[in-house]
Design brief:
Blueprint: H1 2-6, H2 12-20, E1 41-44, E2 47-49, H3 52-61, E3 69-73, H4 79-88, E4 93-98, H5 101-113, E5 120-124, E6 137-142, H6 151-154, E7 157-167, E8 174-181, E9 187-195
Parallel strand pairs: 3-4, 3-6, 4-5, 6-7
Antiparallel strand pairs: 1-2, 7-8, 8-9
Helix pairs in contact: 2-4
Protein backbone atom coordinates (compact mmCIF):
# COMPACT_ATOMS: atom_id res chain seq x y z
CA UNK A 1 0.00 0.00 0.00
CA UNK A 2 1.41 3.38 -1.09
CA UNK A 3 0.51 5.01 2.23
CA UNK A 4 2.99 2.74 3.99
CA UNK A 5 5.86 3.62 1.69
CA UNK A 6 4.95 7.32 1.85
CA UNK A 7 5.10 7.24 5.65
CA UNK A 8 1.43 8.00 6.45
CA UNK A 9 1.13 4.46 7.79
CA UNK A 10 4.00 4.04 10.24
CA UNK A 11 3.27 0.65 11.79
CA UNK A 12 2.68 -2.72 10.20
CA UNK A 13 -0.31 -3.37 12.47
CA UNK A 14 -2.14 -0.46 10.82
CA UNK A 15 -1.04 -1.55 7.35
CA UNK A 16 -2.27 -5.10 7.91
CA UNK A 17 -5.59 -3.91 9.32
CA UNK A 18 -6.26 -1.76 6.26
CA UNK A 19 -5.23 -4.57 3.93
CA UNK A 20 -7.51 -7.01 5.76
CA UNK A 21 -10.67 -4.88 5.62
CA UNK A 22 -12.20 -4.79 2.11
CA UNK A 23 -13.23 -1.14 1.65
CA UNK A 24 -15.38 -2.01 -1.38
CA UNK A 25 -17.85 -3.76 0.95
CA UNK A 26 -18.50 -0.50 2.78
CA UNK A 27 -19.40 1.79 -0.12
CA UNK A 28 -22.47 1.91 -2.40
CA UNK A 29 -22.42 -0.22 -5.55
CA UNK A 30 -21.88 2.74 -7.85
CA UNK A 31 -18.67 3.70 -6.01
CA UNK A 32 -17.06 0.27 -5.66
CA UNK A 33 -14.68 0.96 -8.55
CA UNK A 34 -13.25 3.85 -6.48
CA UNK A 35 -12.93 1.91 -3.22
CA UNK A 36 -9.12 2.04 -3.18
CA UNK A 37 -8.78 5.60 -4.41
CA UNK A 38 -7.49 7.86 -1.64
CA UNK A 39 -10.66 9.98 -1.58
CA UNK A 40 -13.77 10.36 0.60
CA UNK A 41 -16.69 8.35 -0.81
CA UNK A 42 -20.38 9.23 -0.32
CA UNK A 43 -22.40 6.63 1.60
CA UNK A 44 -25.80 8.37 1.73
CA UNK A 45 -27.51 10.65 4.25
CA UNK A 46 -24.98 13.37 3.38
CA UNK A 47 -22.17 11.31 4.94
CA UNK A 48 -18.90 9.90 3.58
CA UNK A 49 -16.34 7.24 4.36
CA UNK A 50 -13.05 9.04 4.97
CA UNK A 51 -10.14 9.00 2.54
CA UNK A 52 -7.66 6.17 3.11
CA UNK A 53 -4.85 8.48 4.25
CA UNK A 54 -7.14 10.02 6.88
CA UNK A 55 -8.16 6.61 8.23
CA UNK A 56 -4.50 5.69 8.58
CA UNK A 57 -3.52 9.05 10.10
CA UNK A 58 -6.23 8.93 12.77
CA UNK A 59 -5.27 5.37 13.76
CA UNK A 60 -1.62 6.40 14.00
CA UNK A 61 -2.22 9.61 15.94
CA UNK A 62 -4.06 7.83 18.77
CA UNK A 63 -1.58 4.93 18.56
CA UNK A 64 -4.14 2.15 18.39
CA UNK A 65 -2.81 -1.15 19.63
CA UNK A 66 -4.10 -4.56 20.80
CA UNK A 67 -6.23 -4.59 23.94
CA UNK A 68 -7.43 -0.98 23.72
CA UNK A 69 -10.97 0.22 24.35
CA UNK A 70 -11.82 2.58 21.49
CA UNK A 71 -14.72 5.01 21.09
CA UNK A 72 -15.70 6.25 17.64
CA UNK A 73 -18.14 9.11 17.10
CA UNK A 74 -19.74 8.68 13.68
CA UNK A 75 -20.03 5.05 12.57
CA UNK A 76 -20.87 5.90 8.98
CA UNK A 77 -20.49 2.78 6.83
CA UNK A 78 -18.67 0.82 9.54
CA UNK A 79 -15.38 0.75 7.63
CA UNK A 80 -13.25 2.58 10.16
CA UNK A 81 -14.70 0.60 13.08
CA UNK A 82 -13.68 -2.58 11.26
CA UNK A 83 -10.13 -1.27 10.84
CA UNK A 84 -9.93 -0.42 14.56
CA UNK A 85 -11.34 -3.89 15.33
CA UNK A 86 -8.49 -5.52 13.42
CA UNK A 87 -5.91 -3.48 15.34
CA UNK A 88 -7.25 -3.85 18.90
CA UNK A 89 -8.02 -7.54 18.44
CA UNK A 90 -10.21 -9.75 20.57
CA UNK A 91 -8.62 -8.44 23.76
CA UNK A 92 -9.82 -4.93 22.86
CA UNK A 93 -13.21 -3.47 22.04
CA UNK A 94 -14.69 -0.84 19.73
CA UNK A 95 -17.73 1.22 20.71
CA UNK A 96 -19.08 3.31 17.85
CA UNK A 97 -21.89 5.86 18.06
CA UNK A 98 -24.08 6.80 15.11
CA UNK A 99 -26.86 9.38 15.36
CA UNK A 100 -28.66 8.17 12.20
CA UNK A 101 -30.46 4.84 12.77
CA UNK A 102 -30.53 4.04 9.04
CA UNK A 103 -26.73 4.33 8.78
CA UNK A 104 -26.21 2.32 11.96
CA UNK A 105 -28.28 -0.50 10.49
CA UNK A 106 -26.33 -0.47 7.21
CA UNK A 107 -23.04 -0.34 9.09
CA UNK A 108 -23.90 -3.44 11.10
CA UNK A 109 -24.76 -5.33 7.90
CA UNK A 110 -21.47 -4.26 6.33
CA UNK A 111 -19.45 -5.24 9.39
CA UNK A 112 -21.04 -8.66 9.67
CA UNK A 113 -20.64 -9.21 5.90
CA UNK A 114 -16.85 -9.07 6.29
CA UNK A 115 -16.87 -11.31 9.37
CA UNK A 116 -16.23 -8.57 11.90
CA UNK A 117 -18.42 -7.54 14.80
CA UNK A 118 -17.29 -9.76 17.67
CA UNK A 119 -15.56 -6.82 19.35
CA UNK A 120 -17.69 -3.98 17.94
CA UNK A 121 -20.78 -2.41 19.52
CA UNK A 122 -22.81 0.02 17.41
CA UNK A 123 -24.91 2.39 19.50
CA UNK A 124 -27.53 4.77 18.08
CA UNK A 125 -26.92 7.95 20.07
CA UNK A 126 -25.97 11.63 19.89
CA UNK A 127 -22.21 11.72 20.42
CA UNK A 128 -22.17 15.50 20.87
CA UNK A 129 -23.75 15.32 24.33
CA UNK A 130 -23.37 13.23 27.49
CA UNK A 131 -22.51 9.71 26.38
CA UNK A 132 -24.71 6.69 27.22
CA UNK A 133 -21.59 4.81 28.40
CA UNK A 134 -20.12 4.63 31.89
CA UNK A 135 -16.63 3.60 30.85
CA UNK A 136 -13.49 5.45 29.84
CA UNK A 137 -11.47 4.88 26.71
CA UNK A 138 -7.84 4.49 25.70
CA UNK A 139 -8.58 6.19 22.39
CA UNK A 140 -11.40 8.29 20.93
CA UNK A 141 -11.73 9.01 17.21
CA UNK A 142 -14.27 11.58 15.98
CA UNK A 143 -15.07 11.27 12.27
CA UNK A 144 -17.06 14.52 11.86
CA UNK A 145 -16.15 18.14 12.55
CA UNK A 146 -17.08 19.56 15.95
CA UNK A 147 -17.63 23.33 16.43
CA UNK A 148 -15.36 23.31 19.50
CA UNK A 149 -13.22 20.82 21.38
CA UNK A 150 -15.86 18.37 22.75
CA UNK A 151 -15.37 18.41 26.52
CA UNK A 152 -17.91 15.59 26.95
CA UNK A 153 -15.44 13.36 25.12
CA UNK A 154 -12.28 14.69 26.77
CA UNK A 155 -13.59 13.60 30.16
CA UNK A 156 -14.14 10.07 28.80
CA UNK A 157 -10.45 9.63 28.05
CA UNK A 158 -8.46 7.42 30.41
CA UNK A 159 -5.21 8.66 31.89
CA UNK A 160 -2.61 8.52 29.09
CA UNK A 161 -5.48 8.35 26.58
CA UNK A 162 -5.61 10.12 23.22
CA UNK A 163 -8.37 11.60 21.10
CA UNK A 164 -8.32 12.89 17.54
CA UNK A 165 -11.07 15.25 16.36
CA UNK A 166 -11.56 17.75 13.53
CA UNK A 167 -12.54 21.12 15.02
CA UNK A 168 -13.72 24.24 13.27
CA UNK A 169 -15.94 25.94 10.74
CA UNK A 170 -18.70 24.32 8.71
CA UNK A 171 -17.94 26.20 5.51
CA UNK A 172 -14.13 26.05 5.48
CA UNK A 173 -11.39 23.62 6.43
CA UNK A 174 -11.16 22.47 10.02
CA UNK A 175 -8.10 21.69 12.12
CA UNK A 176 -7.28 18.12 13.05
CA UNK A 177 -6.66 18.21 16.79
CA UNK A 178 -4.90 15.53 18.84
CA UNK A 179 -5.83 15.58 22.52
CA UNK A 180 -3.58 13.86 25.07
CA UNK A 181 -4.47 13.28 28.72
CA UNK A 182 -1.44 12.49 30.90
CA UNK A 183 -1.06 10.46 34.09
CA UNK A 184 -2.16 13.46 36.17
CA UNK A 185 -5.13 14.08 33.83
CA UNK A 186 -3.58 17.23 32.42
CA UNK A 187 -4.85 17.78 28.89
CA UNK A 188 -2.67 18.96 26.01
CA UNK A 189 -3.69 19.60 22.41
CA UNK A 190 -1.70 19.47 19.16
CA UNK A 191 -2.80 20.82 15.79
CA UNK A 192 -2.10 18.57 12.80
CA UNK A 193 -3.30 20.99 10.16
CA UNK A 194 -6.22 21.54 7.85
CA UNK A 195 -8.76 18.83 7.02
CA UNK A 196 -12.30 18.75 5.64
CA UNK A 197 -14.95 16.59 7.31
CA UNK A 198 -18.73 16.50 7.25
CA UNK A 199 -20.27 18.31 10.27
CA UNK A 200 -20.88 16.53 13.56
CA UNK A 201 -24.62 16.12 13.98
CA UNK A 202 -26.42 16.50 17.31
CA UNK A 203 -27.59 18.96 19.93
CA UNK A 204 -24.05 20.30 20.49
CA UNK A 205 -22.70 19.44 17.08
CA UNK A 206 -22.06 21.60 14.04
CA UNK A 207 -25.35 20.44 12.52
CA UNK A 208 -28.60 19.97 14.43
CA UNK A 209 -30.14 17.72 11.79
Amino acid sequence: MDLYFEGTIKREIVLNAMLNVPREEFVPEEYKAYAYEDIPIPIGEGQTVSALHMVALMCELVELKPGMKVLEIGTGSGYMASVYSEIVGRSGHVYTLEILPSLAKKAMKNILKVNHGLNIDIIVADGSIELPLRIEFDAIIVTASAPDLPENLVKKLKKNGKMVVPVGSLSFYQNLILVEKDEKEKVRTHNFGSVMFVPLKGLKGSSKT
